[in-house]
Amino acid sequence: MPVFAWEGRTRQGEVKKGTMEAEAEPEVANRLRAQGITLSKAKKKGKQIELKLPFGGGVPEKDIVVFTRQFATMIDAGLPIVQCLDILASQAPNKNFGKMLFEVKAMVESGSTLAEALKKQPKAFNDLFVNLVQAGEVGGILDTILSRLAVYIEKAMKLKSQVKGAMVYPISILAVAIIVVIVLLWKVIPVFENMFKDFGGGALPKPTQIVINISNAFVDHAFLIVGSLVSFIVSFSWSLRTKRGRAIFDKMILKAPLIGNVLRKVAVARFTRTMGTLLASGVAILDAMEIVAKTAGNVVIHDAIMYTRARIAEGKNMAEPLAETKVFPPMVVQMIGVGEATGAMDNMLQKIADFYEDEVDVAVNAMTKMMEPLMMVFLGGIVGGLIVAMYLPIFEMAGNIKSG
């Protein structure tokens, strides 16, 4: 689609400039008129070369949140959906996202519902977003639904950033330790070995000889070691693509010390927040369970939710099958049971989500404080051990000279 560089004036006489994708200049004038801007001039820009990569193409969650909040405000103000989409697409800072919104607008203009149009853009709008918008359209509360969606995405982003932030420190320390050990084994220890040979002082201390043997093996078989490491990474990545491999990994990660407890609380918070948002928006419970399972991010959690969904379809309540899976804490199951009995399931789920999001805060802080000294001891033990092993012969030589 051609891109026009335009210039116009607002009703107050302020000069505005920008660019817009449109089929022709009259379309630019009509869109600007809807925004209260009178077009002064428009010039078609030359064709731009677009580099399309075979990967990526997704839209950042931050852009989705801003779009959702602005969309909700415009709908609440009484603007037509097509006009809202046109304004938001024209002003989108992410050009890729703006193009998607123009496509959504075109589908809505041709008679599709907003949910149907959004479903055609899976890189920007997931099943949860589409189903909630559909519920909002049917119930006539689209502005309310969009506001709930914005809050939900913001909270999901916060949870994700907390987990990522907790992992930055240990991963950084581990990377530093690996680099330091490689440099020592490859460059430093061979220098010490040659120095000890020049001194000639007989047999080396056992720790020193072990470190030198490891260094020699590393230098002699560096390509084999690197090849084995690459093969392991490729094999591990491939196994995660299989259902069985992913299930084993997800089960192990939930039982892992320190991080497992945090991830389980994150899973509970995500499940209850998503389920509560869907039910409060009028989505049927079976449809809601299926959507929640898809957004679980863990095969073990996914299977537990789908098992619960199957039992609900048979006429059971939610609490009993959830307890049978032994994935969710007893307190969560009991509170869900209370929510079912009182008819306030959506409110109860939101309260559980609030509680567990606070628990994630506490757990992440505790884990970070615990891992800091552990990682320092780990790094100091490895590097310090190698250095001490190299200096043992020097200490022995110094002792022999002193006694002589």
Describe the structure.
By secondary structure, the protein is mainly α. It folds into 3 domains: 3-44; 61-154, Receptor-associated Protein, CATH 1.20.81; 156-396, Type II secretion system (T2SS), domain F (Receptor-associated Protein). 75% of the residues lie in helices and 6% in strands. The protein has a 3-stranded antiparallel beta sheet with strand order 2-1-3, with helices on one face. The longest helix is centred in the last third of the chain and has 59 residues, at 345-403. The N and C termini lie far apart (90 Å).
Element layout with pairings:
Elements (H helix, E strand, L loop, with lengths): L2 E8 L4 E7 L3 H10 L2 E8 L16 H16 L4 H11 L3 H15 L4 H6 L7 H13 L2 H58 L6 H15 L1 H20 L1 H13 L3 H22 L4 H10 L4 H15 L5 H7 L4 H13 L2 H59 L1
Antiparallel strand pairs: 1-2, 1-3
Helix pairs in contact: 2-3, 2-7, 3-4, 6-7, 7-8, 7-11, 7-16, 8-16, 10-11, 11-12, 11-16, 12-13, 13-14, 14-15, 15-16
Q: Which ranges are low-confidence, i.e. pLDDT below 50, for 5 or more consecutive residues?
A: 47-56
Structural class: mainly alpha
Number of strands: 3
Question: Overall mean pLDDT score?
Answer: 84
N→C terminal distance: 90 Å
In total, how many domains does the architecture comprise?
3
Task: Output the CATH homologous superfamily of the largest domain.
Answer: Type II secretion system (T2SS), domain F
Structural Rg: 30 Å
Strand content: 5-15%
> Biggest β-sheet: count, sense, barrel?
3 strands, antiparallel
Short characterization:
The protein has 16 helices and three strands.
